[in-house]
Design a protein that fits this description.
Strand content: 15-25%
Radius of gyration: 22 Å
Bound molecules: pyridoxal-5'-phosphate
Distance between the termini: 51 Å
Number of helices: 15
Strand order of the largest sheet: 4-12-11-10-7-5-6
Helix content: 25-40%
Largest sheet: 7 strands, mixed
Length: 432
């Protein structure tokens, strides 16, 4: 067994972490090395526990090492770890598709697997474009929302709307039209201006994850109506909001919206293995049918698309939702979280605003120069107290596994409050 110090040194020598300034990682930080987990706790190589306050990047649903999920993956391992979906199928992919469609918004009848949220979005964009093309229309415009984040591959970045993350890649991206989130009237105008050009509108329904920006009630339904009125496809990216995060199975369910294409990932396998899917309707699917020579085929498919181990985790995840009545037990915890946020966090002088939808929370801290890395400092303070949270700039995100107990939820709120107080008090005093 290698010591923590040896592992840290080797990490600094060889790894390049995502969304991480490596100089700060290597020179100023103590890399945290997670070795084990149980329920909502992660354990580092020295045995210290941390509440998983962001569900291991928003994907863990039923907790870590859940017996039903562990067993399902182990059982599948006894059969086959991977076989391709290109020109073959497997029982797990079939069963997961059936179960997924059962719980998805009405009208979605087809499942196209991939392996990450970003690829699920790429699939949706390419499908929408090709669908129009095969109807004799070359529609190249996608309408997306300001502040959107749909992943890191170039198609997903094209429909993203975050200056810091996306604008430098502009020369590599296709053109899009950006709409203001929540503004139905402007979207109507943009659809009018882009008549015959717009292939689809793409939105993160209810909550824009990067920044935890909430849409006003009724906006999603309005977007659906406008897409129908202008004859444009609607893509709902449920990668972050899906699988109970907002309090219902899908965010679309809150406003009874059925998209033409729906992207899911993250929680699809309970946070166990990389798997994603793009769900669509018979109408879209039929647009791709023809003889091989007609080349209406959807020419897309990743090596690990529909991986059997991941599908087994996906089936167990959906089964566990039913067996443990996860959504029912979540409802009172959402209310508790709301109270804790109001009583313990919104009242802090270092907090500007608290935004919550279900188990998705953004805590906006006082504005400070980026060099201060205030959000990061809060996350480090929380780590010292035994919780892992990750900021998006100066917005602290809380997104624990749905199965977190009320006691752990209270502890997570208390740690977050104490960490914000500790980190902001000096800065507020200096600014006064
Ligand atoms: C709404 C949304 N779409 C897509 C993605 C990309 O998913 P992945 O990181 O699995 O590629 C994310 C990731 O956070 C997301 O929040």
């Amino acid at each position: 067994m290698r010591s923590t110090a040896e592992l840290q040194a080797a990490d600094r020598r060889h790894l390049w972490h995502p969304f991480t300034q490596q100089r700060a990682w290597c020179e100023d930080e103590e890399p945290l090395i997670i070795e084990q987990a149980e329920g909502v706790n992660l354990y580092d190589t020295d045995g210290n526990p941390y509440i998983d306050g962001v569900a291991s990047l928003w994907c863990n649903v039923h907790g870590h090492r859940h017996p039903a999920l562990d067993e399902a993956v182990a059982e599948q391992l006894g059969r086959v770890a991977h076989s391709t979906m290109l020109g073959a199928s497997h029982p797990g992919a079939i069963e997961l598709a059936e179960r997924l469609l059962e719980s998805a918004p009405a009208g979605l009848t087809r499942v196209f697997y991939s392996d990450s949220g970003s690829t699920a979005v790429e699939v949706a964009l390419k499908m929408a474009f090709q669908w129009w093309l095969q109807r004799g229309e070359r529609r190249t415009t996608f309408i997306c929302l300001e502040g959107a984040c749909h992943g890191d591959t170039l198609g997903a970045v094209s429909v993203g709307g975050i200056e810091l993350l996306h604008s430098r890649y502009d020369p590599l991206l296709f053109d899009t039209v950006q709409a203001r989130s929540g503004d139905g009237r402007q979207l109507d105008e943009l659809l009018e201006q882009n008549a015959g050009q717009a292939a689809a509108v793409i939105v993160e329904p209810l909550v824009q994850g990067a920044g935890m920006l909430m849409q006003p009630h009724g906006y999603l339904e309005r977007v659906r109506q406008l897409c129908d009125a202008h004859g444009v496809l609607l893509i709902c990216d449920e990668v972050a909001t899906g699988f109970g995060r907002t309090g219902m199975m899908f965010a679309c369910d809150h406003e009874a919206v059925a998209p033409d294409l729906m992207c899911v990932g993250k929680g699809l396998t309970g946070g166990y293995l990389p798997l994603a899917a793009t769900l669509t309707t018979e109408r879209v699917y039929e647009g791709f049918l023809g003889t091989p020579e007609e080349a209406r085929t959807f020419f897309h498919g990743h090596t690990y698309t529909g991986n059997p181990l991941a599908c087994a985790a996906g089936i167990a995840t959906l089964e566990t939702f039913k067996r443990e009545r996860t959504l029912e037990t979540l409802a009172p915890k959402i209310e508790l979280l709301e109270r804790l946020l109001a009583q313990r966090i919104a009242v802090l002088p270092g907090v500007v605003e608290v935004r919550q939808r279900g188990f998705m929370v953004g805590i906006e801290l006082i504005g400070r120069p980026p060099g201060e890395r205030l959000g990061h400092a809060v996350a480090m303070a929380a780590r010292r107290r035994g919780a892992l949270i990750r900021p998006l700039g100066d917005v602290i995100v809380l997104m624990p596994p749905l199965t977190i107990s009320e006691a752990d939820l209270r502890r997570l709120a208390a740690i977050t409050a104490a960490s914000i107080a500790e980190t902001t008090v000096g800065r507020l005093r200096a600014a006064a």
